[in-house]
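Annex B. Sample input.
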Amino acid sequence: MEKFAIKLRQDWYLYLIFLGLLILPNVILSSRLELSFDEAYYWLYSQYLSWGYFDHPPMVALSIWLGGFLWGHNEFAVRFMSQVFLVGTIWLCWDLLRPKKDLLIFFALVFSLPLINFSGIFALPDTPLMFFSALFFWSIKKYLFNDNSLFSFMVMFSITGMFYSKYHGLLIVLLTVLANLDFLKRKSFWFIALGVVALYFPHMYWQYKHDFVSFQFHLTGRTEKHFDVMNILDYISGQVFLMGFLNFFLICFLWYKNRFKDTFERILVFNSFGFLIFLFFMSFRNQIEANWTISCSLAFIILMTKYMIPYKKLVLCFASLSILLVTSFKVILAFPTYFSNINSLEDNRLNEVVDWKEKKIPAIVELCKDRIVVGDNYQVTAKLAFYLNKSSIPALHLGSRESHYSILNFQRKIPKDKEICYLTSKKLEDTIKIETGYKDPVYVLPTTTLEALAQKYEISYEEITRNRIE
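Annex B, continued. Sample output.
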């Protein structure tokens, strides 16, 4: 008994060391890096808390608001809850592996899976989805063997959390039910479903009031649906890397070799391989975003850790290559200005988080002087909003896709003849170009009015200022 207690303490010390090695670099990076376009946009969400938003459910907004409440107005505050969600996710996965566990293999997989590794750095909707997915797997395992009120509530809470994080949570629940149809025979399962409906009602009511704008956007508004073989190849190659590179092939071998008869393991199989197969067929219609499979990473870790124990040396060898690549990316992120300068490519993704605070935004402010700043797309407008700490800067979407700015409609308070400074990604007459180094440059029209813009785009002032999404 005493030897077991000593071994348990040693495991916990090693666990905390490994967790520190994972979290500390992420904390440093989240403090050093400027916000990406999407993070700045989600920060805007947090300034106007609501039950729903144009692109996503509200969990990311609430998370950023809480970080700001605790830590003020800075990049670390925006990303703080991502660190909390990552720590919670790792603990839930670790707890699920008891008593059969191998700490080294577990953390080798965690360190070698990029989606989990980077989730604590950036403030994105995928990170709360990852946490609530882990909580769902943890709860559903308890619920399988203990059909009581506590674990029924935990399952209900975790499903609601997933739904409020990203709409992909619905697929996780459907795959889980398909893996074990006996859930449908439990009375408590139907009470869970009713509870989720009740807790999710505020968001659905928000969608109803706004003409189900989020569902329309994700189903038909993102990009044109068409077949492109590159979408399929990008999806396959991307997932091989994101699931641990060479370890992914070992995972496939273990899936082929083993028969997962345990109910919980079957649930994990459906939520890993089943999820990947579903998205594979979806890639025939459209481009699949790499981060959509973050819950698969969790399912693979929970499912495969114990089956990898006989192949420990091979796992560590394979994982070392992926860890080397992940670490290299983190080093690049630690010195983004240096690596953005030595890269000869003009369209360098690092420029999304480099020099906006010190160079690009001050250049825009100098051109605009004291005039009202009005953007066109949500990306640059959100960046300005965060770094100028002015959340009410409008984005008109005259030459770009709609966003939550279309609902906020800040421009409705600007008189038609009021002088404004207009920022757009399209070159117009009398605009001044500011290079961004990533995506489109910013063209600044230092002096104009909403009425003049309406004439340029051949629409009316009323069309610019009306709320296009009720």
